[in-house]
Amino acid sequence: MSNTPHAVLVGILSVGFFVAPLGGEAQPTIEQLRFDPPRLCLRDTFRWGFSYRGVPGGLAAVKTFELTGRWEGPDEQSVRSLLTPTRDDLQRHAADQGRFESRLLHWGPPRKMPGEAKYTLRVGLTDGQEITSATSVRYVGGCPPPALHTTLAAGPTGRIGFTTITPTLSEFLQGIRPAASTAIWGDLQLPAGRVERTSRGRRRDVPRR
User: Fold this and answer.
1) Cα separation of 96 and 25, whole Å?
2) Cα 8 to Cα 170: distance, rounded to the nearest angstrom
3) Contact status, residue 147 vs residue 165, Cβ threshold 8 Å
4) Where are the alpha helices (DSSP H) in 26-139?
5) Phi, psi (rounded to 5 degrees) for 193
6) Cα 145 from Cα 163, distance rounded (Å)
7) How far apart are CA 104 and CA 85, in angstroms?
8) In this structure, is residue 47 part of a structural domain?
9) Are 105 and 85 in contact (CB under 8 A)?
10) Tens-digit pLDDT profile for residues 157-169
11) Pair 53, 95 in one domain
């Protein structure tokens, strides 16, 4: 009989050793959801990303993944964001924890400027859990126009502007050059290595020194 309390104590401690690791498992978490940069001008390029941990199978195993945006203000409705990555993008993140970085994107004109948009990320796991995170992005007005170029001979990169004309059908048929012009722009990025053209007209990458 004297050994009974001792046996019960050993049994409790044994159960504790098995339960303790389960209680110490990391809970599924999404954190540090942010846009880079957090303040955007019209058609700025940017990246967005977040860190995650405790997600079994990583992002490759999640059931649902959606990023939605909502403009701040009365009577504003949420819209499904085109920033939601594809399943192929998520398949690259099979570890239980890590950092997801989106591809470089071009954002079209917002519905109003300046203004602030709140983005909410919702990730549904296979066991039915849903984890969320949110951040805000400020769209600012009065941004400087892009530098205008006539050719790319100088090798500019980044935001590049050009002056163009759009003739009417009558002007086009008569060969008349319109007096008014319009500035358009886009963002040009090149590979890390210098690109040269070979004698046969093919391109090859030349590493930078």
Assistant:
1) 12
2) 98
3) no
4) 87-91
5) -90, 160
6) 12
7) 12
8) yes
9) no
10) 777 777 888 888 8
11) yes
pTM above 0.70, yes or no: no
Query: Domain span at residue 108?
Result: 29-139
Asked whether residue 19 is domain-assigned, the answer is no
- What CATH number is given to the structural domain containing 92? 2.60.40.770
Same domain assignment for residues 85 and 173: no
Total structural domains within the chain: 2
Residue 157 CB neighbour total at 10 angstroms: 10
Query: Could you tell me how far CA 133 lies from the centroid of its own chain?
Result: 14
Residue-wise pLDDT tens digits, 104-113: 666 665 666 6
Amino acid at 183: A
b/e for 2-33, b at 16 or more Cβ within 10 A? eeeeeeeeeeeeeeeeeeeeeeeeeebebeeb
- Residue 194 has a CB neighbour count (10 Å cut-off) of 13
What is the separation of C-alpha 110 from the centre of its chain, rounded to a whole number of angstroms?
Answer: 17
- Residues 166 and 179: their CA atoms lie apart, in Å, by 10
Instruction: Give the residue with greater pLDDT, 2 vs 189.
Output: 189
| Tokens describing residue 37 | 């940069």
Q: Could you tell me if 40 and 137 are in contact, meaning their C-beta atoms sit under 8 angstroms apart?
A: yes
Structure tokens at 100: 């997801």
Neighbours of 126 (CB within 10 A): 11
**Residues comprising the chain, all counted:** 209
> Encoding tokens for residue 140?
């600012």
